[in-house]
Design a protein that fits this description.
The complex is a heterodimer of chains A (246) and B (368). Chain A is an alpha/beta fold and 246 residues long. Chain A contains nine helices and ten strands. In chain A, the strands form two sheets. Chain A has a six-stranded mixed sheet with strand order 6-7-8-3-9-10, with helices on both faces. The mean pLDDT of chain A is 89. Chain B has two domains: 232 residues, no CATH class; 120 residues, 3-Layer(aba) Sandwich (abc type-2 transporter like fold), CATH 3.40.1710. The radius of gyration of chain B is 27 Å and the shape is elongated. Chain B starts with a helix and ends with a helix. Classes of the chains: A alpha/beta (246), B alpha/beta (368). The interface between A and B is medium-sized, with 30 and 23 residues. Chain A: Keywords: ATP-binding, Nucleotide-binding. Chain A: InterPro entries: AAA+_ATPase, ABC_transporter-like_ATP-bd, P-loop_NTPase. Chain A: It comes from Chryseolinea serpens.
């Protein structure tokens, strides 16, 4: 029996009359790469914000890393990493300063930060860029660095909100190698994306339409069920019925 | 605590790396002190001076020739009644009048001393002081040249009188004003912009997902600006002591403590703006229009509040810098102690508390 790290039950968020996330129920297992798909406005970001402890659910329940999203947001925050859609490192700080800062706010010791940043830079092949301002790096490098910083404190789960937007295919491939490596280390990956080739890389995916999860399975099983050969088609069949979009 | 220090260090890195802003930050008080102190008041050349020579004797003529030779004055000789003189002043035709009594030379020779009346329009206090100083030194110079050949020294006693503004209010008013202005600008605008910048770039979200407490995020943003502002207060005080010859008349520690209070008021204001806005431009605009302008208009340092219509006088009460300005003037220039400014201090402290509470409240709402 695999360990469950995220478990939600009828998790719902309302903004007035608008139901952004409508009773979603799912589980994510330890070390899994879980793709969280959906068209713009389907409610992915709201769901993710609830799981990260940024937003209080209206009803339903959820545990992240074994902690309750209503009462134990502090513990949740300690056990997750997060990489937002927008590039989220400080451009006016150097690579090393960014690593030191984020390590610092997660309470890592100086010695720990030092060894981790050295191995991180070696893994990314960025030793010579260590003292450069992050703003001067190409986007692909920034994204890879951003991901490495998000998992620096060895969280149980890392949430990636469209991490590869605007990145070229080669860098995207490299980025996914980093994701695989992290998953291999036992870090659970919760990722949203609009790229269907990336959806294929996931162990399981869920597809949200109008605030509800319409499908949840392995990419292969989904393609079988919808009788098609590509994830693009699966997504299209589900999402074209959507009433709302941004 | 260690996390907090990590954060503060990062904030310092942001500030120190931004060279242009840093230059403005530290250059601004210096430039403002110099501009307000000198540039705006250097136009004392060729001031129109009225001479009422009731004596018209040898001594008065000699002295007049000396005054006329000076480049500072444009002399107008005529006889005027005190009433006409007043009218000339009121219309701004003349800046100064020098009145010789009827028996100037005689007094000088027989009583060994004579009076000269110097009347100056002090509505522009800096010009008035300079003009009076020029005339006094010319008179002294003349007196010295007379005394070279005499065994009994003669004395010419200038009687100076400032009209419209007898206490020369405003000479030093701008120093407390500049302090209020600079602190307002640095604390409110810089803090607001630096917090909103994190919202704009998306790093705020990352910080909120981290276990670092949101309130600490905000507080650690305020620390560098608190320290920078104290440095600015120091610069202004040093400049006013050594460049403007304006010492701190009252207790320096009291002045610093009050300045710290005002800095905290401004920081909370900046934080409040940053919570309410989501783009750097808006934060900047609100800071400039909502804070800087009222500081200039309503603190009383450029335009006297007593002369304003009552509604504006009432509005001026909600401008924090007005109270700080009063405090600095009392402590720095008049040399008063805490007993004279406790009311103003209380008002500032109250404003700070109020802003802090509503910021905290709004901050929580935003997170939910």
């Amino acid at each position: 029996m695999t360990e469950t790290v995220i478990k939600t039950d009828k998790l719902t968020k309302r903004f007035g009359d608008f139901i952004a996330t409508n009773g979603i129920t799912f589980e994510v297992h330890k070390g899994e790469i879980f793709g969280f798909l959906g068209a713009n406005g389907a409610g992915k970001t709201t769901a993710m914000r609830m799981l990260c402890g940024l937003s209080k659910p209206s009803s339903g329940s959820a545990q992240v890393a074994g902690f309750d999203v209503y009462k134990q947001t502090e513990q949740i925050k300690r056990n997750i990493g997060y990489m937002s859609q927008k590039f989220s490192l400080y451009e006016d700080l150097t690579v090393v300063e960014n690593i030191r800062f984020f390590g610092g706010i997660y309470g890592l010791s100086n010695a720990d930060i030092k060894t981790k940043s050295e191995s991180l830079l070696a893994q990314l092949g960025m030793e010579s860029e260590a003292k450069k301002l992050v703003g001067s790096l190409p986007l692909g490098w920034k994204q890879k660095l951003s991901f490495s910083v998000a998992v620096l404190h060895r969280p149980k789960i890392v949430f990636l909100d469209e991490p590869t937007g605007g990145v070229d295919p080669v860098t995207r491939r490299q980025f996914w190698n980093l994701i695989y490596a992290a998953a291999q280390d036992g870090i659970t990956i919760f990722v949203t994306t609009h790229y269907m080739d990336e959806a294929e890389y996931c162990n399981r995916i869920s597809i949200m339409v109008d605030g509800k999860i319409e499908a949840l399975d392995t990419p292969r099983a989904l393609k079988q069920r919808y009788n098609t050969t590509t994830m693009d088609d699966v997504f299209y069949q589900l999402a074209r019925g959507a009433k709302r979009s941004e | 605590m260690k996390q907090f220090l990590t954060f503060v260090r990062k904030e310092f890195a942001h500030v120190l790396r931004d060279r242009k802003t840093l230059l403005i930050l530290f250059g601004m008080p210096v430039v403002q002190i110099l501009i307000f102190g000198f540039a705006l008041t250097s136009e004392v050349k060729n001031s129109r001076v009225l001479i009422v020579d009731n004596a018209n004797d040898a001594a008065s003529q000699q002295l007049l020739t000396k005054i006329e030779a000076s480049q500072y004055f444009e002399v107008d000789r005529s006889v005027m009644s005190p009433l006409q003189m007043e009218a000339a002043f009121r219309e701004g035709e003349i800046k100064m009048a020098i009145v010789f009594p009827a028996n100037f030379n005689e007094d000088l020779l027989h009583q060994n001393q004579a009076h000269v009346q110097i009347v100056t329009d002090a509505s522009d206090p800096n010009t008035a002081t300079s003009l009076t100083n020029y005339v006094s030194s010319i008179i002294q110079d003349y007196q010295a040249s007379l005394n070279q050949t005499l065994s009994v020294p003669l004395r010419i006693l200038p009687e100076t009188r400032f009209i419209y503004n007898p206490q020369l209010k405003g000479v030093y008013n701008y120093v407390p004003g500049v302090m209020a202005l600079v602190l307002m600008l640095v604390c409110v605008m810089m803090t607001a912009v630096s917090i909103v910048r994190e919202k704009e770039t998306g790093t705020m979200e990352v910080l909120l997902v981290s276990p670092f407490k949101p309130v600490l995020v905000i507080l650690s943003k305020a620390v560098p600006y608190l320290i920078l502002s104290l440095v600015n207060v120091g610069t202004i005080l040093l400049m006013s002591i050594f460049v403007l010859d304006l010492p701190v008349a009252g207790n320096l520690l009291l002045l610093l403590a009050e300045s710290t209070l005002f800095i905290i008021t401004c920081l909370t204001l900046g934080i409040f703006i940053s919570i309410k806005t989501s783009s750097q431009q808006v934060a900047m605009l609100i800071s400039l229009m909502g804070m800087l302008l009222p500081t200039m208009l309503f603190s009383g340092f450029m335009f006297p509040i007593e002369n304003m219509p009552v509604p504006l006088q009432i509005i001026s009460n909600i401008v924090p810098s007005k109270w700080y300005y009063l405090i600095v003037k009392a402590v720095m220039i008049k040399g008063l102690g805490f007993s004279a400014i406790w009311k103003e201090t209380l008002i500032l402290a109250g404003m700070t508390l109020f802003l802090f509470v509503i910021s905290l409240k709004n901050f929580k709402i935003r997170l939910a």
